[in-house]
Amino acid sequence: MFIQLTHLVIGVIYLVAAFLFMFGLKRMSSPVTAPSGIFVAGIGMVVAVLASFLYAFDVNAAAKPFLWINLGLGAAALIIGVGVSRWSAKKVSMTAMPQMVALYNGMGGGAAGGIAAVALFAGHADGATVLVMTLAGALIGSVSLSGSIIAWAKLDELLKQPLRFKGQRLFNGLTFLVTIAVAAYIVYVVESGAAPLLAMPNVIIILFTLALFFGIAVTLPIGGADMPVVISIYNAATGLAVSLDGFVVQNPALMIAGMVVGAAGTLLTLLMAKAMNRSISNILFSNFGEVVAQKQGAIKGSLKPIAAADAAIAMRYAGSVIFVPGYGLAAAQAQQKLYEFVKLLVAAGVSVKFAIHPVAGRMPGQMDVLLAEAGVPYDMIFQLDDINDDFKTTDFAVVIGANDVVNPEARTEKTSPIYGMPILNADMAHHCYCVKRGQGKGYSGIVNPLFYEDNTSMVYGDAGAVLGEMIEAVRGLGAKAAA
Amino acid sequence: MNFTIDITGFVALYIYMLAAFAGWVIITGVPAILHTPLMSGSNFVHGIVVVGGLYALLNASTVTEQAIGCLTVLLAAGNVAGGYTVTSRMLAMFKTSAPVTIVKKS
Q1: How much is the pLDDT for A158?
Q2: Confidence bin at B2 (pLDDT 50/70/90)
Q3: Distances (CA, A) of A418 to A228, A248, A322, A365, A383
Q4: A445 interface with B at CB cutoff 8 Å
Q5: I need a surface site. Which of A175, A234, A291, A467 has the fewest CB within 10 A?
């Protein structure tokens, strides 16, 4: 009777937790309610974790002697995990957010794989359905773990170059097939009654090794600018793995929360792919930016450099300016300086807006967060569809550290690898300034004709240094006027 | 009375289908400006896996199971705390220039 009572409490609490997660995510749909949304979801998490200790009243017979040790281990692992992670999450800078999210995501994937591993090693798999779900959770969780770690290393620039070799797609494809075959073999052996799960720990170890290896192999060749898609995919994958685990441990809160995250990740993945006009498989398997045959001589005009100070003063006396920030701004950590400069322009009566491309930066929406960190009010920030028509009537478009997302070739050049990708119409502004470190090409490896247009001027230099000079120039102007 | 949760094949499929649909609808309403907090927020939500980890650990009866269970809870706890902290840090930064008005962007 008492045990049933604990099950009742557990059941009710997980129902409440599942509701709070959904409600919390729902509140994330506006910047005004979002902070309370994450708080609501946090309450759901706390009650769910506390309730899970009630499982201690109903553990299986074999585990009874170890109950106190297990409880101690669980509490210790919780405290250490929360402590270390909270500490690291508090001090990480906003520009390092993509790799941090990738890392946390990998941890979730690893945990999902771990639950499946415990079930497999303990031989808990009653029936083919549970076994297949467990194996699927194990595979997806493991791929998400190792893939996210590689994504983290790439974003953190521990791995600088995408690793590519001939026949890589075939190799990855074969690895995938072998992994699935090993999983199928386990199901076959167990279900045909030839051997129980407990008799093949080695095969299970091989399965996990293959899955982990596949996650590494498939992520290594993907380049930096495709990371928004990769992070979204692994986020969805971890959600799915958690959801499958929920069935294995008969916990509907895991099933629901995991599946909601899976849907969220899938949606974001599709949005990112659409923003690049490429399919998911193209992003994952095409080795983008490797070989690009561009018609030489197709570009007319020349690069016209301009001093940062001159550009700044021209903007100071303009009517309207739109800034287009890209990853280069994040890399230079110049978002604070950018807003400082923007405040000077606004004070001088210039109408200023920010235009954000969906795939600008290294994760979906990264630029929005960086601008928010600098203090830019979100009603100055506009997304592609909301602002693209405004460029025509704008005096200056200022592209900072972005390249492919403003490449007009995407509209016209059918042979271009980025043809069809929706771009920000910076070239349609009366005049365009491009802040760039050097004369290099974009991620796609193609030359950007925007830089050669008659109404484009290049401001060479690190975004931080350039903006510093711009601030000085406008301030100096004010000082002269005062004197 | 029996309150043990028992989800069998088809019921699981119903739950999955409805949850996926609900998730899709809820997330569709999130504006692009909040995509990063959404991602780290949903990253936090799948940290619920910590509950499954605790369940597995409490039912562990061999050293292997205990070791994996313990590692699972450790990783999942990290996922939860990290995801929550970075999300709330980011959301606290979103400010509007106008006095508080509900801004609706699609």
Answers
A1: 85
A2: confident
A3: 16, 43, 23, 20, 20
A4: no
A5: A291
Q: A254 and B59 in contact by Cβ < 8 A? A: no
**Which chain B residues contact residue A10 at CB under 8 A?**
5
CB contact under 8 A, B23 and A255: no
Residues 347-406 of A with CB under 8 A from B: 356, 358, 363-366, 368-369, 372-373, 375, 377-381, 383, 386
Sign of the dihedral defined by the CA atoms of residues A99, A100, A104, A105, in that order? negative
Query: Closest Cα of chain A to B10: distance in Å?
Result: 11
- Mean pLDDT, chain B, whole residue set: 87
DSSP state of B47: G
Confidence at residue A16, expressed as pLDDT on a 0 to 100 scale: 94
pLDDT band for position A283 (cuts 50, 70, 90): confident
Q: Are strands A456-460 and A381-383 parallel, antiparallel or unpaired?
A: unpaired
Q: Which residue, chain included where needed, has tokens 């051997």?
A: A195
User: What integer is the mean pLDDT of B21-48?
Assistant: 91
Q: What is the predicted pLDDT for the residue at A275?
A: 87
| Angle of helix A308-316 versus helix A335-347 axis, rounded to 10 | 40
- Token look-up 């490896």 returns A445
Question: From edge to edge, which strands make up the β-sheet containing A396-400?
Answer: A381-383, A351-356, A320-325, A396-400, A431-436, A456-460
Nearest CA of chain B to the CA of A402: how many Å?
Answer: 18
The average confidence (pLDDT) of chain A is 89
The predicted structure's pLDDT at residue A197 = 87
Q: What is the pLDDT of residues A353-378, one digit of tens each?
A: 999 998 888 888 899 999 999 999 98
User: Cβ contacts (< 8 Å) between A88 and chain B: which residues?
Assistant: 82
- Per-residue pLDDT averaged across A258-285, rounded? 88
